Amino acid sequence: MGMFCYARTLRALLLACGLPLVAPASVLAANLLSPAGAVLIKQSAEPFGIATAILDGGGVHDKWLGLQSRLDDDMVQLALCDGDRERCASPAALQLLAIVDTARARDGRARLGEINRAVNLAIHPASDIVQYGAIDVWASPLATFNHHAGDCEDYAIAKLAALRLAGISADDLRLVIARDTRLGEDHAVATVRLDGHWLTLDNRRMAMVEDSDVRNYRPTFVMGQQGAMKYAYAPAISATVRLSVAQAD
Fold first, then answer.
1. Of 5, 66, 187, 241, which residue is the least packed, with the fewest Cβ within 10 Å?
2. Which bin fits 190, alpha (ψ -120 to 50), beta or left (φ > 0)?
């Protein structure tokens, strides 16, 4: 997923700058969508309004679980720097906090939009192979801002941290992985709930789009404070049915 969304962002930037594409960017992405057990939830208040199944294992579950400790560490460091800017020894933290400061001066949708635009502009598209020598690394916010670069999930994770610092409840934040059906690749976006509606914060666009208006994205996984879940497209039979989560198309 990481390499595919990086390639798409880079392609868009090249076209926007009027630069020719010398060759198509293609690389094999790591397969996070490994089989795992899940429990079906019939009613969903998640982004896109599709029933979900709680993951109890598999690639996405493990990736999200591994990210949590790093994210918690970053949030502690950001909170300390937020309370004492003069003694903050992390330029990455200060840069992220500057974005949060601007967002705090706004309300409602304007606050969310400020974070979406500012993070999009602060981070340059870069592949995990180039930065970390590995495929599909989910970097913490400070790691991303230290590099000033990342791929789609890195943008999304940084936005989630910034939104938390700007006063948005963790209950209203999600990381969504979706299949771009037009491009045939996986992509990650941050989502935030405002007045009962889910907005997508996407590194491919500056404007936020409500989930009901998103086109060409088929959501496959959603992650948040409640854990990692898979969107269940099969009819719900029972809230306690155990499912086998197959690999995404």
1. 66
2. beta
pLDDT (tens digit per residue) in 19-42: 333 333 333 233 444 444 555 544
Query: What span, in angstroms and rounded, lies between the C-alpha atoms of 58 and 221?
Result: 12
Length of the chain as a residue count: 249
DSSP symbol at 169 = -
Contact 190, 198 (CB under 8 A): no
- Evaluate whether residue 134 is within a structural domain: yes
| 119 part of a folded domain | yes
- Confirm whether 61 is domain-assigned: yes
Residue 105 corresponds to which tokens in the numbers above? 């001066």
User: What CATH number is given to the structural domain containing 186?
Assistant: 3.10.620.30
Helices 152-165 and 108-122, interaxial angle, to 10°? 140
β partners of residue 191 = 174, 200
pTM assigned to the model: 0.79
Residue 17 lies in a domain: no
Kindly give the interhelix angle for 59-83 and 91-104, rounded to the nearest 10 degrees. 80
